[in-house]
Amino acid sequence: MMFEALRKYAEFEGRARRSEYWLFTLFQVLVTFGLFLVLVMVAAATGGDGDQAGAAAVMIMALLGLFYLAMLIPSLAVSVRRLHDSDKSGWWLLLSFVPFGGFVVFIFTLLDGTPGDNRYGPDPKGRPGYAPPTVVHNHYYPPGGGPPSDPAQA
Known about the structure:
Layout: H1 4-7, H2 18-45, H3 50-85, H4 101-110
Helix pairs in contact: 2-3
């Protein structure tokens, strides 16, 4: 499940469960933490030698940059599919560029998706949807009468 977003590398259609989104986010955090841990260990192993530590730092930061560049498309795709799960357009991601808009998008990623099918596809959890709405016609008829028998009077 952690690598489902990588299997659907550039798939912006459909829906993504919370677990797919958050496990992929955890994967990115763990890789970032691991690379920074390697950076600290290399800096400690060089014993303060500026040239070796600097070269190692540049190489590890380049690896981190390449990792995030490779994860850009799957991150966008899984975020769009996560928004689709709550029946929102992927364009809501642009809200992240507005102050406090990223917080709103974060809340959307925490919310459960709509049960049943929505306009973006079937429910990934396989839950039945809401019952179709019943049509209620509210007509006012004058006392003592139902609908007019002559349609022209209506």
